[in-house]
Amino acid sequence: MRIKLTVAYDGTDFCGWAAQTGRRTVQGTLTEAVRQVSGEEIEILGASRTDSGAHARGQVCHFDTHVSIPPPKWASILNRVLPSDVAVQASKVEAQTFHSRFSALDRYYRYRILTVPRDPHRARFTHAYGRPLDVAKMQAGAHALLGEHDFLAFTEELDPSVENTRRTLYRFDVSQVRDEVWVDVVGTAFLRGMMRRMSGALLEVGRGHRPVEEVSRLLDAEERNRLQWPVVLPARGLCLMKVRYGRHTRDNRVGDPRTASIYDV
């Protein structure tokens, strides 16, 4: 059976999603939990490779097993052996053609910026800017990023093997929610650091350190090299909210498969 898991985690004490020798990662922790329950050597594949310190409410992953545990029971059984900062929200069986990464239609991320003095109860989940921001200007800047563009100027670190830096964003909202500003983005896939650098650009706009019109200029191949690229905000404010799938399984990978090593961070 191919088992699909929906997973939530506090990424503060993880070195990101992807398994790394000698480091605590979400993928490695989940893999060990499944092996502990099933006794099988399995591979867990995730929809999104979140960075060290980033969080998730709706990460999706899958693995194959020969153990005859009812699919809905995997969630509760795994949660008995998982540490407190990661939990399986749901588990179900999928067709063998399902792939948590390549079958995804889009991903939804949220970046949270605290606009009041640092709150220790939210320090792990927000970027503590500590001052009011001009949300209207930030939303105007966000509007320029909607649609399909070359997001090279919004990457943190580009793998030389990645040739395709074009991505499509379907939704980009900036809103004041009590004493926080939320940056909510839905897109096909994201380059390394893309979400955090886009949020950094909008923070610079909101604090008056970058004109709104510069956001669109950063998307232009000739203009972007004349400008200072935006700051990359800390990972603690970033959360993967949801990964969406269609009714029927299909391969939705972005661009040439050779360029797909960097995605959703």
Short description, anyone?
The protein is an alpha+beta fold and 265 residues long.
Features:
265 residues, alpha+beta, ten-stranded mixed β-sheet, 5 helices, 10 strands, 28% strand, disordered C terminus
Extended strand count: 10
Regions with pLDDT < 50 over 5+ consecutive residues? 256-264
- Count of alpha/pi helices: 5
Order of helices and strands: EHEEHEEEHEEEHHE
Q: What is the general shape? A: globular
Strand content: 25-35%
**Mean pLDDT, all residues:** 93
Distance between the termini: 29 Å
| Largest sheet geometry | 10 strands, mixed
> What Rg, in angstroms, do the CA atoms define?
19 Å
Structure description:
By secondary structure, this protein is of the alpha+beta class. The chain contains five helices and ten strands; from the N terminus they run E-H-E-E-H-E-E-E-H-E-E-E-H-H-E. Strands 1, 2, 3, 4, 5, 6, 7, 8, 9 and 10 form a ten-stranded mixed β-sheet that branches. The longest helix is centred in the N-terminal third of the chain and has 13 residues.
